[in-house]
Predict the structure.
Amino acid sequence: MTGGVACGKTSVCRRLIERLPGGSSAFISCDEEVGVLLEREDVRQEIDSIGLDFGKKLLSGTGIHRKELRELLFENSDFRGRVEGVLHPLVLDRVIAQSKTWSDLVRISIVEVPLLYEVDFPLDRDIDLVVACCRSTQMKRLCIDRGLEPSVAEKIIGTQIPIEDKMRKANIVVWNDGAIETLLVQTDHLVSRCDRIV
């Protein structure tokens, strides 16, 4: 599962897990795994060291300054590449390790990878599902719903592959530019297509 920022990937994942038969599916969010990794002292120290190379101290007594980290990530591609070089192999290791703990009853595993195509995340999969919407909807959700400044929202969107390119790479596209009810209808249709698997 991938797509653009603020396109509704998490909402689709949540609905799929809710609707698929209990025990037949498993879910991993790579964003959540990054959050777990940022609680590790060794990871925080490494990211702080990279930040210092770019003139920013990112570590405080309470952990990583998330706002400053985010700003630097979207302002400096060299910094972003180095941080991704630290985090992405660790995330992949965690995904693989978790998949080995799943029950034999699991028939569908959903891994939400926001930057699947941007970093060519080397994850074995059968289907690429892209959740997409138009750029103006992304901007509205980032600025109004998440409270970001328009300049920051533009930078975040600008670091990602255009949504049209992601859609071309997809096996399945969920278009999430309208009401939540429309998104749920599409997601429930996907569940119905999974009946023969689970």
In short: The chain has a mean pLDDT of 94.
